[in-house]
Design a protein that fits this description.
Length: 211
């Protein structure tokens, strides 16, 4: 039965480009802090490309990309299982069947099971040389803490993205992001608008720091 009330903790961080080991250590450190401060946390949300950083070249994107069975996913799956918490985080994904590379977000449940991924659909110009546009089918995920929709950063600027997720039954939408400071007003506006449009909760976690 779905929980009536859940706690989502957003773990903002500055992910270092091409420093996967440091980023994973930082993610687990922040998760530890979150669980110590809020022991009833059901889900921890990290930013877009949390494991890899945001400013990789096309060559770097390909070299640091992982499949859904990659070492970073396995490490964070083990953390989720050991701490009985859901995790959502951004990473650069390689599809083993097509060899294409995506800006993705993974969802792991509290047992450590990888429930799936969402691949960013709406790319900004700087991303297009390195990654492919992703999920036009906008998956939702049925879990014990409700039906979860995910979109990534610039996806949230498009009303249709959130509307499709809401019509598919999402109870709330998680938005890992790396939205730059000069557009801070836009960030506030679009996240609030997507929640208002659909009478739905959104949880948004942005990168911090400077690349």
């Amino acid at each position: 039965m779905k929980k009536e009330t859940i706690r989502i903790t957003c773990a903002q961080m500055h992910s270092l480009t091409n420093e996967k080991r440091k980023n994973l250590d930082k993610m687990k450190q922040l998760a530890d802090m979150a669980l110590q401060k809020y022991p009833d946390t059901d889900l921890i949300l990290f930013p877009e490309l949390a494991t890899t950083g945001c400013e990789c070249t096309p060559e770097d994107c390909r070299s640091i990309a992982e499949t859904m069975q990659g070492p970073s996913i396995k490490e964070l799956s083990n953390y989720a299982r050991d701490h009985s918490v859901f995790l959502v985080f951004g990473f650069i994904e390689k599809d083993p069947d097509t060899d294409k590379v995506y800006n993705s977000a993974a969802l792991i449940d509290r047992s450590g099971k990888v429930l799936g991924q969402y691949r960013k659909m709406h790319l900004v110009e700087e991303e297009k040389p390195g990654v492919e546009s992703g999920n036009s089918d906008y998956p939702v995920f049925q879990t014990e803490i409700g039906t979860i929709g995910i979109m990534i950063c610039w996806d949230s600027a498009f009303p249709e993205t959130a509307r499709i997720l809401a019509l598919k039954g999402a109870d709330y939408i998680l938005i890992p992001a790396a939205w730059e400071k000069p557009q801070q007003h836009d960030w506030d506006l679009v996240q609030q608008a997507r929640a208002f449009d659909n009478v739905i909760y959104t949880a948004c976690c942005n990168q911090v720091g400077a690349e």
